[in-house]
Design brief:
- This protein has a domain of about 230 residues: Flavocytochrome C3, Chain A, domain 2.
- Helix content is about 40%, strand content about 0%.
- The radius of gyration is 22 Å and the shape is globular.
């Protein structure tokens, strides 16, 4: 894949419309015994707040990893756990390397004008928190350079305490947890790591002001993002498992939903405590299409009068509809959020904390997908999440077929759902999905029927099996 095509793909994934582009059982935490020290995120609980920076540790910068003998080789080593050309892959192919550069483009410049801010985006802290996180680090080494976008230490942890010992004899005997190295082998940890920027964290978020100024809405789905990235590691046993994509999907659902709920908890806590500058209601929490129903691409101030404002369902709709509990915590939270234009902060706090506790105690599986497809009132966001769930599970089926095999009937049907969900060419909203007009059958009804048929087809073909208890045992990538 060309660099230009890859960059375009990842940037498009940041938009809701691009999501249309593209089990059961145990947790997807694949931690197991290893001869390499097991690094872990300090708190992997779903109820723990997400944080982008390790403020007490020193960051060394990407140049500390780029030597030819370390991770800057011009050729991949496929024999071990690391390829040794990780820096080259990141620099040449990974859109994260361009995260700072996009702050110079016309979209970013227009956003700053819309916000009424006179400094460039490359100097604005609210942009840098995710587009160049390490530039905000209080402790930086002498080789640090802050214009490298999202780089090695954003995912692997501040290297100040492990950059020297991690390649020396005896490293295997150390507790890497204590050095600041972050866990990347566990799919749950990996998903939480991505969610820090792509959903939101205590030290970085995208609010309605940024969205109204032109920033893409934060619609993150872990398995699709993971698929789109160039891999700078050799796949271990977990990635060779027959249910790997299903486990990616499960981990992503947990991490993204928890991240969104923690973001809501943070926002409403500030409002409840009357923190200076707190905004409530924060409109980024709600479904854009409650107000922007038919949104032409060239008239982005188009707003319809809404009889009700719907709480956003991108991160909660599938789990809410797929729950076995009719009065689930997510359903009660939705009732509170939609009961008034200004939802009562204390009531929201109570329900969001119950929803987080219920999510942590839940075991997400394909059963959620099957139950959610039975809903007769799918909104667009929930329908897209169901499409992506089905697509992820079908990815595991594709691994059993030759790469050059013709598309199966299931793949053709999945592509058909994708086309039904696509935005009209001149719109940036799902025009007609809720108000079908003269289209027959109504798009929402057609999508619901197609999703149910696909779930039945996957289950009858054995496409959603129970994951085995086998665990990953290779070194982390």
């Amino acid at each position: 894949m060309s660099r230009r095509k890859l960059v375009s793909t990842l940037l498009a994934l940041l938009l809701a419309i691009a999501w249309i582009g593209n089990r059961r059982g145990s947790s997807s935490d694949d931690t197991g015994a290893s001869s390499t020290p097991q690094a872990v995120v300090a708190n992997t609980s779903l109820t723990a707040p997400l944080q982008i920076l390790q403020a007490q540790r020193q960051y060394e910068g990407v140049h500390s990893c780029s030597a030819t003998a370390c991770h800057g080789s011009g050729r991949a080593d496929t024999t071990g756990s690391i390829q040794r050309n990780e820096y080259v892959t990141w620099f040449e192919k990974d859109p994260h390397a361009k995260a700072f550069e996009v702050l110079r483009n016309e979209v970013s410049q227009r956003m700053m004008r819309n916000l009424g801010i006179d400094i460039p985006a490359t100097e604005y802290a609210d942009c840098l928190k995710c587009h160049s996180p390490l530039s905000q680090a209080p402790r930086r080494g002498r080789r640090f350079y802050g214009q490298h976008g999202v780089s090695c230490e954003d995912c692997h942890g501040a290297a100040g305490d492990w950059i020297a010992p991690h390649y020396r004899d005896g490293w295997e005997d150390l507790d890497a947890t204590q050095t600041g190295m972050l866990e990347t082998k566990s799919l749950d940890s990996r998903a939480r790591m991505c969610a820090r920027c792509h959903v939101g964290a205590v030290d970085g978020e995208v609010n309605h002001d940024l969205i109204a100024a032109g920033h893409p809405v934060m619609k993150f789905e872990f398995s699709a993002y993971h698929d789109a990235l160039p891999k700078h590691w050799n796949p271990g046993p977990a990635e060779k498992r027959p249910d790997f994509h299903a486990r990616l999907w499960e981990a992503g659902q947990r991490a993204a939903a928890a991240g969104a709920l923690k973001m809501l908890e943070l926002r409403v806590s500030k409002a409840d405590s009357q923190v200076d500058g707190a905004v409530w209601p924060e409109l980024a929490e709600y479904d854009c299409f409650s107000c922007h129903r038919d949104l032409p691409r060239l008239a982005q101030n188009n707003t319809s009068a809404a009889t009700t404002i719907r709480w956003g369902s991108w991160y909660s709709g599938l789990l809410e509809r797929g729950s076995t509990q009719q009065d689930s915590a997510l359903s009660r939270l939705r009732t509170v959020m939609e009961g008034s234009v200004v939802a009562e902060p204390k009531a929201v706090l109570r329900e969001v904390r119950l929803a987080l506790a219920q999510l942590e105690a839940s075991e997400i599986s394909f059963d959620y997908v099957r139950r959610a497809t039975q809903s007769d009132s799918l909104d667009w966001d929930s329908a897209v999440q169901l499409y992506l769930a089905i697509r992820a599970h079908d990815q595991d089926n594709r691994k059993t077929r030759p790469a050059d095999a013709p598309a199966t009937e299931t793949q053709i049907r999945i592509d058909r759902v994708r086309s039904l969900l696509q935005f009209p060419e001149t719109f940036v909203s799902p025009r007609g999905f809720r108000r079908p007009g003269t289209e027959q059958p109504a798009p929402r009804a057609a999508v619901s029927t197609a999703l149910r048929d696909l779930v039945n087809e996957l289950e009858s073909a054995g496409g959603a099996p129970d994951p085995s208890p086998e665990q990953e045992s290779a070194p982390c990538p």
